[in-house]
Design brief:
Blueprint lengths: L1 H10 L2 E2 L7 E2 L4 E2 L7 H11 L4 E3 L7 H10 L8 E6 L6 H15 L4 E6 L19 H13 L3 E7 L3 H8 L10 E5 L7 H9 L3 E5 L12 H10 L3 H10 L4 E2 L6 H8 L8 H12 L11
Parallel strand pairs: 3-4, 4-5, 5-6, 6-7, 7-8, 8-9, 9-10
Antiparallel strand pairs: 1-2
Length: about 300
C-alpha cells in the first residue's frame, strides 16, 4: 500500500489559509544528518515510491547530492516541492542572494518552492555565534522578497521562530510577502502546542522537523506500541499521523527505502481522540532533556 498511500499524500496538499497561497505536500523527506551517498539514494527511493516533497538546507552540506538525485529522477519540476534554508551567517542582502544562488546551483534547479531563514539570528559572515550588528532579519526578509520577485523562489518562510519573532514579520507594514511557513520541532515528546496553534492561527503553515523525536526509544513506549498494533501500523506511522492530524506537515528523515515508503503511508488510518489523549498524556509525563542542534 506504500505507493498508493504516497500518491494520496501528494494529492491531499495542505492548504494554508491566507495570506499564503502555498500548497505543500503533507509528507516530505528530511535530509538532515544523512551520510554521504546515502542522501542521493534516499531521495531517489522517496521519489520512486511517490514522494513529491524534499526538505534540504545549505547547513546539511549535502544539497549537491540531493541535486544529483533530483536531476536523475523522472518527475517534472512542477510535480516536486523542494525546500531549502538560509544559514545564520547569510543575513546581509548580497549574502542572502549569493547563498540562494549557490543552493540552486547545488540542487540543479532554477527555483526552490520554499526558502526559509534557518534560525532567527544574524551572525557575521563565516563565523559561528558572532553577532552581526549591521545585519537584521528584516533586511534579510526584504531581500528574500526580491528573490521571489526575481523568480528564484516561490514562497519564503522561517524556521525556529517563536511567537514574538514570527509576529514581528507578520505585523510589519513594510513587508509585502508574509511568511508561508514556520518549520519547528514538534512531536509527542515536545508538542510545542502553543507555538503550533499561534502559527496556524496566523495563516502560516507549520512543518515539523525531527517528527520522530530523533530516536528509537520513543517507539518502544508501551502505549505507542499498543496504539500501533490496534491500527495495524508501525509506531513511527502513529507518531507521524499525530502531527498530520493537527494539520502539521512532517519531514521524517530515513535512508531505508522500506521505512521511507512506510513513513508516507499515513492516510489509511486515523487516530481516535482517545488514542491521541492517552498517548500524549503518558508520553508527556516523561522528562525529556532537549538540546538545540543545527537542524
Amino acid at each position: 500500500s506504500g505507493s498508493h498511500a504516497t500518491t494520496t499524500a501528494a494529492a491531499s496538499m495542505v492548504n494554508a489559509t491566507a495570506p499564503s497561497t502555498m500548497k505543500i505536500p503533507p509528507v516530505g523527506l528530511g535530509t538532515w544528518k544523512a551520510k554521504p551517498n546515502e542522501v542521493r539514494e534516499a531521495v531517489t527511493a522517496a521519489i520512486a515510491c511517490g514522494y513529491t516533497h524534499v526538505d534540504c538546507a545549505a547547513a546539511y552540506a549535502n544539497e549537491w547530492e540531493v541535486g544529483e538525485a533530483l536531476a536523475a529522477c523522472a518527475s517534472r519540476r512542477d510535480e516536486l516541492f523542494v525546500t531549502s534554508k538560509l544559514w545564520n551567517d547569510r543575513r546581509r542582502p548580497k549574502d542572502v542572494r549569493e547563498a540562494l544562488e549557490t543552493t540552486l546551483k547545488d540542487l540543479q534547479l532554477e527555483y526552490v518552492d520554499l526558502y526559509l531563514i534557518h534560525w532567527p539570528v544574524c551572525w557575521r559572515r563565516g563565523t559561528v555565534l558572532q553577532p552581526d550588528a549591521e545585519a537584521s532579519i528584516r533586511e534579510c526578509w526584504l531581500e528574500l522578497e526580491r528573490c521571489v520577485r526575481d523568480g528564484l523562489v516561490k514562497h519564503i518562510g522561517v524556521s525556529n521562530f517563536n511567537e514574538t519573532q514570527l509576529a514581528a514579520l507578520l505585523d510589519d507594514d513594510g513587508i509585502t510577502i508574509k511568511p508561508a511557513c514556520n518549520q519547528i520541532e514538534t512531536h509527542p515528546l515536545w508538542s510545542n502546542d502553543a507555538l503550533v496553534k499561534y502559527t496556524q492561527s496566523r495563516g502560516v503553515t507549520v512543518t515539523a522537523y525531527s517528527p520522530l523525536a530523533q530516536g528509537g526509544e520513543l517507539f518502544e513506549h508501551p502505549t505507542l506500541k499498543r496504539i500501533a498494533e490496534k491500527h495495524g501500523v508501525t509506531p513511527a506511522q502513529v507518531v507521524l499521523r499525530w502531527n498530520v492530524q493537527r494539520g502539521v506537515v512532517v519531514i521524517p528523515k530515513s535512508t531505508s527505502p522500506a521505512r521511507i515508503a512506510c513513513n508516507a503511508d499515513l492516510f489509511s488510518f486515523e487516530l481516535s481522540d482517545e488514542d491521541v489523549e492517552e498517548r500524549y498524556e503518558s508520553l508527556r509525563r516523561r522528562q525529556v532533556v532537549r538540546v538545540s542542534t543545527v537542524e
